[in-house]
Amino acid sequence: MLSPEMNERLTRVGPGTPCGELMRRYWIPIAPFAQLLENPVRKVRVLGEDLVLYKNKKGGIGLIGDRCLHRLVDLQYGIPDDEGLRCPYHGWLYGETGECKERPMELKPLQALPKKMKAYPVREMGGLVFAYMGPEPVPALPPWDLFVWPNAVRQIGVNVLDCNWLQCQENTGDPTHSVWAHGHLFNYVLERQGDSARTTATDHTVHTRLEWGVGIKELYANTTEHGMEKGIVYSKALGAKADRTRRHSTVIFPFYTQTGSTGAPRSEYQIRVPMDDTHTYHICYQVYAAPPGVEAPKQDVVPWYEPPMKDENGNPVLDYVLAQDAIVWKAQGDIVDRSQELLGRTDLPIVVLRRQLQEQIALVEQGKSPMNFFPQSPGDILYGSGSPPSDWTAPDWATRQIAVSQAFRQNFHKGFSQDDADRYGPAVGLAQELHRRIEEARQAAAQP
Ligand code: FES
Ligand SMILES: [Fe+2]
């Protein structure tokens, strides 16, 4: 439970708000680069600001305010030029730094304009365009592992969700929701669809998720160098198959969560970008990595897609994981009133996550740098967990990786690719081809 004041503090993201100022210390993913190849000018909304992202005719990318300084025409209808974006009405030309470079209908010499076009730096990494909207000097763009991991197939799913970003991010502090939202709810939806083949198949992921609810002793949540690790401790005495600890996803502060392991045949960042107080740009950044010795199919560009949230009748699609998450986030309200909630034992990681957010907001207020702010390039690949996948430089890593990934690949082919947003992605065929190649390598390695 939070006070109404604290709830405001953690959720509002517009200019000048405490959380908005924190967010402005980070490079923020705002669009798949592939979208600019389809249409070089597009409107985006980030941290309560309406902006226009464009690719000029020479390939440079810019992010500027959405209103022409002349008579406020929306620049999403602008014309890309060699040096920037031209307003469609009278041709004023804006460069990447917001400078108005030409006003073709005005007499020369031109008078200086009394105001400047808003502009933010942008960079491309791993098929995503990132923007930095904070104070200078501009920090380094951190090379988080999944964006730069070599030899992999990728695809990017994007959705605009009608709720505050923190509801989506708190989901990562909630390992047990899988039992219900992706277990019982999933089962109920499949039953209603009359899909008994899927619900009764013992290898359907529903059954795994239902099992995750049995024998929970406690949850744990530990803050780390880059965010948070958390998971569930199971007890045989309470009915679990064994005493064990199951890691949930890794949180990279402030808005990433990583499922799967880096270098695995499937892993994903879910990124919860605050568009404004009541809308979230949700990105599923999906990576299917090949182990060394296996070549991943090549991609010229990382393709994007929009996982559907509604069917042709306007009803929610609920038979895959992301859509199940999205419906419960939105069903909490535009901005959930956390002064009214009643937390239980399974909410421990959420409490840790909120505390971390409060601490980082306070650091920025004190003029200090928050977690994961990098004034200089951190150099090599950055791992959310703080370290590379265990012993991945060992000579036999490839063989072992192929072996441990086998179960996952089988699940993928048996239905995992059907149970999550992946199934709608344009690269899922390539991911399956990659998995075929991995299996071929495994069989070759198994030959005496
Ligand atoms: S309104 Fe943009 S150039 Fe006139
Ligand atoms: Fe979920």
What brief labels describe this structure?
448 residues, four-stranded antiparallel sheet, Naphthalene 1,2-dioxygenase Alpha Subunit, Chain A, domain 1, alpha+beta, 24% strand, 19 strands, 29% helix, single chain, 12 helices, Rieske Iron-sulfur Protein, binds fe (ii) ion, binds FE2/S2 (inorganic) cluster
What's a quick, concise take on this entry?
This protein has twelve helices and 19 strands. It has about 450 residues and is of the alpha+beta class. The longest helix is centred in the last third of the chain and has 23 residues, at about 395-420.
CATH architecture of the largest domain: Alpha-Beta Complex
Helix % is: 25-40%
Number of domains: 2
Number of helices: 12
What is the arithmetic mean of pLDDT?
A: 91
**Which shape, going by the Cα principal axes?**
globular
CATH class assignment of the largest domain? Alpha Beta
Bound molecules: FE2/S2 (inorganic) cluster, fe (ii) ion
Number of DSSP E strands: 19
Contiguous uncertain segments of 5+ residues = none
CATH topology of the largest domain: Naphthalene 1,2-dioxygenase Alpha Subunit, Chain A, domain 1
Distance between the termini: 60 Å
Characterization of the model:
There is one protein chain. By secondary structure, the protein is of the alpha+beta class. It folds into two domains: 104 residues, Rieske [2Fe-2S] iron-sulphur domain (Rieske Iron-sulfur Protein); 266 residues, Naphthalene 1,2-dioxygenase Alpha Subunit, Chain A, domain 1, CATH 3.90.380. It is 29% helix and 24% strand. Strands 13-14-15-16-17-18-12-19 form an eight-stranded mixed beta sheet. A four-stranded antiparallel beta sheet has the order 2-3-4-9. Strands 5-6-7-8 form a four-stranded antiparallel beta sheet, with no helix packed on it. Helix 6 packs across helix 9. The chain is globular, with a radius of gyration of 23 Å. The termini are far apart. The model has no long low-confidence stretch (mean pLDDT 91). Fe (ii) ion binds next to helix 6 and helix 9. FE2/S2 (inorganic) cluster binds next to loops.
